[in-house]
């Protein structure tokens, strides 16, 4: 979607939608989603009102880690289609007012990438981190080629870390190259060439995978921040309309480093993602062993606390100012969906009422708009399992379009699907919720439209929190009162002065100086101070 507006402007109005391409829509009946399938479903996104989508990695890959192991940065994986198919999809999305972002895996490749294959047989190559030692340094893996020594992976052994240098060198470890060495310089140039290639085909920017992982032994990510500041300078000169979003999980560091936006994530340097987890995570679905159990604020028992998120948001926005944005996702491909474990369908409207009226960039994970659930017991696929209680496959099941076979996702036999369809016969579908004006889908659509039509409810404008317990009460732009009660029991608190008119409300009344919110109630009210 071409636009003369720089990314710093159009992102302010963005409502993001994340598509896991292999699970969204299958056009050719092979059981795996593809670009043509996405293109055929663009009308759903347009109707919903989202205006920016980002795809998980769709490049050539052996798919040891669902595409986060890239074997060719300049061509898409055949299972999704061709580069021309992606360009056509991007153009079709643009005609509907939707921009498309790609997921850029900047810190590592697949061990099948030609760069790594060459490096494993060339002792002079510096594209990757090699230690020519008798014993492997901690975390290093033995060379698969004629080159002696060991290489450093980023995550799985099949994901060798690209060499962007070390912030701290050590003569005793000569493999710790400085950030301005030949290999790191070549990799920085390669990032520019990759971004330039895809932006030239009409894409609108990138979400950068594990953006903080580039420079090694980098206290506070200071050298990594310099690297991204350099790349952002180039991007602003060469492609000022292109957006750069980071998977960093620390907006107060990543945005000053050059990213237009960063996500609150389930991991990160501040409490290992506690601000996001304190909202949604109910200790089921994806559970990391180091996490301490907590009751989320959006929990039926009403035992969570909003202050953890609020304090982190205030701290980050105080640092960022007008330089960029924080994005708040409903979920993502690595984290449990909103509808996980004990969280029921009746709890989801309040969560969306908050997410779509809080001054962050909302990011809706595909299917969350209809309340798709995390499916326990889903087979592990393409590296989805990260721990005994952390299998991401349950958040990656196929999109549920209708009540036809395979929920309308694919015509393939059920046993040939990328992942099984949610077996629950009561599973939600787009078709059923489109036909029901009272559905979650229609509510999400109305909230998106309200956000777009009401600048005070968007990413800018003031936010005054009047009550951070149950119910949560805040005023946006001095003109709109928002009330959210995520617990099952009713909650009361004082109301601000002035008359109120309900704009979108369910189970909330404001009268005689008091707010009463029924269990799982929410409301957006126009506030007349006169």
Describe the structure.
With 530 residues, the chain is of the alpha/beta class. It contains 13 helices and 21 strands. The chain has helices at 7-10, 35-40, 42-48, 83-95, 114-119, 182-199, 222-238, 251-254, 274-280, 307-320, 348-355, 430-434, 440-453, and strands at 16-19, 52-55, 59-60, 72-76, 99-105, 130-131, 141-142, 150-151, 205-209, 243-246, 261-263, 325-329, 361-365, 385-387, 390-391, 463-468, 472-476, 480-484, 491-494, 499-511, 514-528. Strand 10, helix 8 and strand 11 form a beta-alpha-beta unit. Helix 11 (348-355) packs parallel to helix 13 (440-453). The longest helix is centred in the middle third of the chain and has 18 residues, at 182-199.
What's the arrangement of secondary structure elements?
Layout: H1 7-10, E1 16-19, H2 35-40, H3 42-48, E2 52-55, E3 59-60, E4 72-76, H4 83-95, E5 99-105, H5 114-119, E6 130-131, E7 141-142, E8 150-151, H6 182-199, E9 205-209, H7 222-238, E10 243-246, H8 251-254, E11 261-263, H9 274-280, H10 307-320, E12 325-329, H11 348-355, E13 361-365, E14 385-387, E15 390-391, H12 430-434, H13 440-453, E16 463-468, E17 472-476, E18 480-484, E19 491-494, E20 499-511, E21 514-528
Parallel strand pairs: 1-2, 1-13, 2-5, 5-9, 9-10, 10-11, 11-12, 12-13
Antiparallel strand pairs: 3-4, 6-8, 7-8, 14-15, 16-17, 17-18, 18-21, 19-21, 20-21
Helix pairs in contact: 6-7, 9-10, 11-13
């Amino acid at each position: 979607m071409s636009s003369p507006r720089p990314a710093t402007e159009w992102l302010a109005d963005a409502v993001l939608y994340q598509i896991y391409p292999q699970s969204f829509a299958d056009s050719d009946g092979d059981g795996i989603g593809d670009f043509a399938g996405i293109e055929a479903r663009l009308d759903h996104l347009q109707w919903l009102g989202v205006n920016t989508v980002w795809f998980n990695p769709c490049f050539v890959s052996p798919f040891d880690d669902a595409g986060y192991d890239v074997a060719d940065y300049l061509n898409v994986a055949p299972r999704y289609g061709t580069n021309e198919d992606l360009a056509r999809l991007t153009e079709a999305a643009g005609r509907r007012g939707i921009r498309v972002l790609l997921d850029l895996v900047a810190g590592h490749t697949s061990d099948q990438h030609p760069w790594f294959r060459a490096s494993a047989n060339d002792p002079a190559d510096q594209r990757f981190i090699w230690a020519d030692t008798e014993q492997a340094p901690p975390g290093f893996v033995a060379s698969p080629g004629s080159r002696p020594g060991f290489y450093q992976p980023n995550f799985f052994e099949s994901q060798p870390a690209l060499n962007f240098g070390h912030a701290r060198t050590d003569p005793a470890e000569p493999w710790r190259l400085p950030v301005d060495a030949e290999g790191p310089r070549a990799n920085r140039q390669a990032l520019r060439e990759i971004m330039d290639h895809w932006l030239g085909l009409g894409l609108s920017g990138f979400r950068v995978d594990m953006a903080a992982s580039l420079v090694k032994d980098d206290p506070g990510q200071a050298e990594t921040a310099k690297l991204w500041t350099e790349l952002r300078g180039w991007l602003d000169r060469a492609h000022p309309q292109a957006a750069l979003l980071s998977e960093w999980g620390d907006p107060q560091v990543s945005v000053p480093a050059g990213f237009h936006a960063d996500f609150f994530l389930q991991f990160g340097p501040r409490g290992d993602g506690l601000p996001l987890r304190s909202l949604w995570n109910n200790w089921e679905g994806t559970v990391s062993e180091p996490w301490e159990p907590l009751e989320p604020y959006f929990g039926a028992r009403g035992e969570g606390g909003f202050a953890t998120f609020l304090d982190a948001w205030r701290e980050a926005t105080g640092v960022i100012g007008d330089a960029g944005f924080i994005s708040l996702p409903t979920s993502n491909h690595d984290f449990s969906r909103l509808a996980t474990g004990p969280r029921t369908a009746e709890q989801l409207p309040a969560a969306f009422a908050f997410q779509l009226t809080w001054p962050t960039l909302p990011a809706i994970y595909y299917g969350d708009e209809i309340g798709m659930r995390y499916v326990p017991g889903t087979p592990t696929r393409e590296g989805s399992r990260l721990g005994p209680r952390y299998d991401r496959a349950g958040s990656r099941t196929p999109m549920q379009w209708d009540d036809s076979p395979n929920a309308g996702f694919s015509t393939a036999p059920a046993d040939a699907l990328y992942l099984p369809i949610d077996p629950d016969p009561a599973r939600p579908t787009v078709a059923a919720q489109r036909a029901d004006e009272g559905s979650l889908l229609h509510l999400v659509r109305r909230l998106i439209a309200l956000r777009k039509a009401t600048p005070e409810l968007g990413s800018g404008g003031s936010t005054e929190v009047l009550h951070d317990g149950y119910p949560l009460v805040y005023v946006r732009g001095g003109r709109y009162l928002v009330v959210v009660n995520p617990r099952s029991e009713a909650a009361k608190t004082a109301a601000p002065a002035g008359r109120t008119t309900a704009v979108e409300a369910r189970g909330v009344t404001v009268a005689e100086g008091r707010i009463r919110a029924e269990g799982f109630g929410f409301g957006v009210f126009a506030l007349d101070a006169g």
